[in-house]
Design a protein that fits this description.
Structural class: alpha/beta
Helix content: 40-55%
Largest sheet: 8 strands, mixed
Strand order of the largest sheet: 1-2-6-5-4-3-7-8
Oligomer: single chain
Number of helices: 12
Number of strands: 8
Radius of gyration: 19 Å
Length: 269
């Protein structure tokens, strides 16, 4: 089992849902507020939880899960999944810089995690998009790879911003970061995904428990993280309202690079 530094261990104990027993884990905002309260180092909580800290009993209960968490961590690592806390040197630092208290304290990853620090371009579209969008997604993915960047997609599941874009990037010889709003363990059961991971060209990552199913809330969080993880986000035919439009507006408000493209005009050009 991986030897964790104290800051990473404290982060995982406080926020991970791998252990079902005990108090409810801290959400991102709660965690970062607590980190600020203890001077930026969650490792200090392993020795003592200050009485003046909000929800001190809850925090102590979460930290007491160390033994049960060690068994859960061993199981998940055996399945090929790595846990990265925001205090792990492999965690993409620009997530904290761009998201602040909304940055996920923990990421679950399978594959070459170094891709998370590489320049990536996110390609996003509406779930179930049809028409010219699939062909446009393939064209954009090939262009991104030709420019030397990795492509950020929704993984290897169904949909334009998942299987279509992922396949196009890989066929063009590129690398892919699949940011998931669905169960990581299900995607790892796909032989092609495992082969591509072993080849070092695919990293699947999620801020959610590896068995958590897709939900609208998870998709909202995925889009938020995708725009922050990417150097540029290309949105194909976003609807005027809905989750994607909200995520793009939020990204633009943060000063992030967002490009909205009409797929039919792209192909006509």
């Amino acid at each position: 089992m991986t030897r964790l530094d104290d800051a990473t261990l404290a982060t995982l104990l406080l926020t991970s849902r791998l252990v079902p027993d005990g108090p409810p884990p801290l959400k991102a905002r709660e965690f970062w507020h607590l980190v600020d309260a203890v001077g930026g180092d969650p490792a200090l909580l392993l020795s003592a939880v200050p009485a003046e800290v909000t929800d001190a009993d809850r925090i102590e209960g979460l930290l007491d899960r160390a033994t049960a968490f060690a068994f859960a961590l061993e199981d998940i690592e055996r399945s090929g999944i790595t846990l990265l806390s925001a205090f792990d040197r492999r965690y993409p630092t620009h997530l904290c810089e761009r998201l602040g208290a909304q940055a996920p304290p923990v990421l679950h990853a399978a594959g070459p995690v170094e891709l998370l620090e590489e320049p990536v371009v996110a390609i996003v579209a509406e779930r179930g998009a049809g028409g010219a969008v699939p062909a446009a997604a393939r064209a954009v993915a090939a262009e991104v790879v030709a420019d030397g960047a990795a492509v950020l997609t929704a993984g290897t599941g169904t949909g334009v911003d998942a299987a279509t874009t992922t396949d196009a990037a890989l066929e063009a010889g590129g690398a892919v970061v699949g940011l998931l709003a669905e169960a990581l363990v299900l995607q790892l059961r796909r032989p092609e995904a495992r082969r591509t991971i072993h080849a070092g060209r695919l990293c699947l990552v999620t801020p959610y428990p590896p068995t958590a199913p897709w939900s609208e809330g998870a998709e909202r969080g995925r889009l938020l993280i995708a725009t922050a993880l990417a150097e540029r986000t290309v949105a194909l035919d976003p609807a005027a309202d809905g989750l994607l439009a909200a995520a793009l507006a939020d990204a633009e408000a943060r000063g992030l690079d967002v490009e909205i493209i009409r797929s039919d005009l792209l192909l006509d050009g």
